[in-house]
Design goal:
about 375 residues, alpha+beta, about 25% strand
Length: about 375
């Protein structure tokens, strides 16, 4: 018979030195937990900023066997820092398994929503995130291999760099930047991008902006957040905010000058950031979820995560299952629509700590969806000719 797993819910400030030491050990020795999101430093900082923050401490026979940092929104539970937390799971020793479904049951929320779960679980679906793992020989060896494999693509980017220089002046990149004014500029540009796209502005709630600033102020030896910026002449053409820990560098929030999209400034910045950061000792560069076309030309490694909503058994779950079945009968388009709406609602719910804020976000999302649907209906169907 399996030993009973028990849980205690505490605030980050209540964690004692022994528990923090365990957390630090596990997050650096368990190969599944190498992302900066699993570091105690991330949790300690995020817990000071995120509404509803808490830590689940799991024990067997009185001994701590794992931690799960999270936040609550009414009856819903999400990873701490959602919707900006790209990787999450139980922080535990290598080989210790506490399944997603166990966590959901012990935390006793109406639902546990996880877009990037690391660890065991059966609910939901598997998704892939993608990374660049630098060879021992470093950036130059990686770039030579990529250029050999995808010559046309990288030659095109080299031409784009020359075009940028010819149009605006010499290209230069500054990295490891911690300028709060530059971060505010990046956030404002990203927020405008969300609004143009009809997506929920994750920075409108305020605490998400505060979290990026707080992370950037961290002064830990092997954990932190910083920006890289690309200039052509005197013009700022791209900025990216990244999180890093140990030798792991996580690309997080990129923005670039839309009028220069033909010159690919965002992609050029990623290349130069990897070159500079690899020289500083970073070896893994995480691009997050696969999907954007450019990523396939860069990455040489993948990690499987799980996207899931674990719901409490009962009427709420039954109604949810019925909705999924109804949408499933609509075919792939219905399934895609359901996934899109679920992710959109998860973002709104995570950002907005109050019921009123969630209601406003939902209203905006519905209007956006209706406008897009109306636009599709007005678009004439094209007939393909042989």
């Amino acid at each position: 018979m399996a030993e009973t797993l028990q849980v205690e819910i505490i605030g980050a400030a209540a964690m004692d030195a022994e528990a923090i030491a365990l957390w630090r050990e596990w997050s650096t020795t368990n190969p599944l937990l190498q992302s900066p999101y699993f570091r105690w430093d991330y949790t300690e900082i995020a817990a000071r900023v995120c509404p509803g923050a808490a830590i689940a401490v799991f024990r067997r026979q009185g001994q701590i066997v794992g931690f799960f940092p999270h936040q609550r929104r009414g009856g819903s539970i999400q990873p701490l820092g959602a919707p900006m937390n790209d990787y999450h799971g139980v922080v535990a020793a290598e080989g210790e398994e506490i399944a997603l479904e166990q966590v959901a049951r012990l935390l006793k929320g109406r639902r546990l929503n996880v877009p990037g779960w690391i660890g065991s679980g059966e609910t939901g679906e598997a998704r892939q995130t993608v990374q660049v793992v630098m060879p021992d020989a470093g950036f130059d060896a990686w770039y030579a291999e990529r250029r050999s494999t995808f010559g046309k693509y990288f030659k095109d980017k080299e031409r784009a760099r020359r075009s940028l220089e010819n149009e605006l002046g010499p290209v230069r990149v500054e990295h490891d930047l911690r300028d709060p004014d530059l971060l505010d500029h990046l956030i404002d540009l990203k927020a405008a991008q969300y609004r143009r796209s009809g997506l929920h502005d994750i920075f409108a709630c305020g605490w998400t902006r505060d979290l990026l600033h707080a992370l950037m102020k961290a002064e830990e030896r092997d954990f932190g957040a910083s920006m890289a910026a690309m200039y052509a002449g005197e013009k700022l053409v791209a900025v990216e905010f990244s999180l890093h820990a140990g030798r792991h560098h996580h690309f997080w929030f990129p923005v670039y000058e839309p009028s220069l999209a033909r010159c690919s400034p965002g992609i050029l910045l990623s290349i130069d950031t990897m070159r500079l950061a690899a020289a500083d000792g970073f070896r893994v560069f995480d691009f997050g979820f696969e999907g954007e076309g450019y990523k396939k030309y860069f990455v040489n490694a993948r990690q499987t995560v799980r996207e899931a909503v674990v719901m409490r058994p009962g009427l709420v779950r039954a109604l949810g299952d019925a909705a999924v079945r109804a949408l499933g009968r609509a075919g792939p388009r219905g399934e895609a629509l359901h996934a899109s709406l679920r992710r959109r609602w998860s973002t709104i719910e995570a950002c907005e700590a109050s019921p009123a804020g969630r209601a406003r976000g939902a209203a905006v999302a519905v209007r956006s969806a209706l406008q897009k649907a109306a636009g599709r209906r007005k678009t004439p169907t094209r007939v393909a000719h042989a």
